[in-house]
Batch of 2 targets.
Target 1
Amino acid sequence: MANNFEYFSPTRVVFGKETEKQTGKLIREYGGSRVLVLYGGKSAVRSGLLDLVKESLKEEELYFQELGGIVPNPHLDKVYEGIEIGKNEGIDFLLAVGGGSVIDTAKAIAYGLGEPEKDVWELYEHTRKARKCLPVASVLTIAAAGSETSRSSVITNEKTLEKRAYDDNLARPKFAIMNPEFTKTLPDYQTESGCTDIMMHTIERYFTNGGNMEITDALAEGLLRTVMENAKILHTEPDNYDARAEIMWAGSLAHNDLTGCGNDGGDFMSHKLEHELGGMFDVTHGAGLAAIWPSWARYVYKYCLPRFVKYAKNVMGVTSGGSDEETALLGIKAMEEFYHSIGMPVNLKELGIHPTEEQIREMAEGCLKASGSSTGSAKKLDLQDMIRIYQMANEA
């Protein structure tokens, strides 16, 4: 039985070749006049995209300041730096030229400038809710996080090693410009980590115990099969424009809530468990998800068996005539084989880390704190459950 739901996805998407030339015009259209341009400093610069974007802003006679050097698992200190620039320069619009880390930083700065008298980190600690936020938009360079059309952002407090998320419709980007050409400069590992993140945003809405809709399942399953097919293509043909276009659009659809309509809200425990890995070890997000998901899946599948069976058959192509439990386990194994086929890890050893028992407990306690209580849909996880999943991923 389907749950009631509300679907809200207001971001305007401008997709295709040379769309970056419209950036300045779109900012004008959405009321921006003094822009803070954010970027990481690698692909956006190397590809020439940043120069093209700045030229577009100059053509519209927009005032702008720049803030580069944003890193994966973006840091709170950079957010504070951007807030100070925004205050001093009278910034009224945030433009992210990059991927999820840059967009998430833009959202956090936008919250901070919306309520400059308050500490923005309080939002990520969930001690208050945002009341105001400056407008945000993006020119996307990495297909992965889906932050370009979502209400989510994730920031790492590098002093406490806490990686925390805050979701609010106030920060939904006004527009997202997507030219797949500008993802071609990414290393293969980063491309495939992005594909993994896209899949996980859909998978975590799929494995629920609280009701589902067939049309939503069909959308999710089709998206997952498409991402898997094109991830394999890009592993050997990194310049394939059509494959990059498929992946880029899938990234937005996977995290704008479309693939969860009618579900119970989803099970985002793999993401929450990975956030602690990212906060402590600064691992690549998608690779961290690939390393934790198989252990999570083997730990919870019996509690959500019909969904695991359906996933095995409809997404992974399992045709075994065995029991439901055998089919579910074959689906998990097939997922691991897919990860390996695109160069992704399936455990913490392959990810390149080996946390101690003390670190595992610290991560589990952090995950429980960030969640607020035992949480999950496939299976509600408490502290001991989280510890065991980390241990399984560490022992595999």
Target 2
Amino acid sequence: MLVERHAGTSTHPRGRGNNLRTMEIFRTAGLESRIREAARVLAGNDGILQVDTLTGKERRWIIGDISGGMDVSRVSSSDWCLCSQNDLEPVLLRYAREQGADIRFGSELLSFTQTGEGVQAQVMRRDTGETYTVNADFLVAADGPRSPIRTQLGIGQSGPGELFHNVSVTFRSRALQNHVGEKRFVVCYATNPRGEGALLPVDNKERWVIHVPWYPDRGEALEDFTDERLAAHIRAAVGVADIDVEITGKAPWHASKRVADSYGEGRVFLAGDSAHEMPPTGAFGSNTGIQDAHNLAWKLASVLRGWAGLSLLDSYERERRPVALATGTRACVQAADEQHPGFSPAAGRNNDPADLMTVALCYRYASNAVVGAAPEQPIVPDAFQLGGEPGSRAPHMWVMRGADRISTLDLYERSFVLLAGSGGQKWRSAVEKASRNLGFPVEAYLVGTGADHDLVPDLDADWAELHGTAEDGAVLVRPDGFVAWRADAAMPDADRVLTNVLQTLLSRD
């Protein structure tokens, strides 16, 4: 059940950068094609541009290619996607309802109490004032940066707090597209002091957004941003004094860096902006929130189905909070590199586009839900690295399953999955025995070209090398696509070892 105080989905074009990991999650959920259809008008946009004015002579690409020139198909089943929140949320809403979700708009959580057995909440219908009680096993607070639930739990936050302030302005201009240039950008930073701002296309034709710096510490009020002032600001950013501009909306936003000191208490968990805030540069904030939810969802499902003990849920904070801390720091560096309007820190470093790929795909977990992780390693490595290490996102590999070409990532969502190569029949038998012992499904796939293999790799792909093991080894992958455990080679009593590993991972006594 989702309780949402607003009457419907978001109407403002924000939070539009969906990175590779998020799109992989949407793919395994069966949503990728729907989202790309909703985002088709921006499918050709790429890169981050900086200009004095859009029509001026000073023009440089801060990032020419979001993927840093990398062949994305070699590392992922998906690709980046620009889909604004107002276009994305209706897709998610329709699909959630198709899956049987109970979505209650115009409903506000008034209060809640919890015991060791569950959570009881008081909810109000905002149109009628009617209140009712909801009894649930768990409560997930995705209630934004000023989270009332986090406040009620008494959970503090760490970090520098507010960094800068902008006014996000939506407007129409039919002539603006004539000044964009041949290559369509993701965002264009105008540095002209009279028109400083971050310009973003909404449809590449007549709908646009510009983020204008706002300085409340200098006495500026939101009311000072009149339509006339904003239209003049946009014209200065473009460099055309008489270009058509129609202001259609404006909303303030505050870029902050904060992380909750805890990700929950008892049966209540924080996710998204209630757990962490970071600058929008790099699109890290929304992606981190979506990946929070994905990490928590399979763990809640495992507990509710009786597969796991409650202690599994402790791994949510242990895994996701360090990622938020590392990612928030990287978002601040990105804001400095891009010289985001209103942000005036010490100079950033020269940005390496591949760094965005590293942050998006290579973060690591070390918790009670991983066996064999190296806790001394950095949460985000210095360079792009996906080698099948426990705690890392499982490598992507194109394979044939019968007549279908799929990614190995497509296998991971509903259960634990074990991949094995030659000699894999022993691993398949071990999986079957472990699954019977534990009373929940574990799937096994043998990778190779033999008649008894389930997945045939592309000709240039070496399964064992890609996953950091030997041909007779195996890799166990969690339902969220992260490596839970790895066997370097075949082993005696593999079913006993695998049973013990799964019991440990799932906190089963």
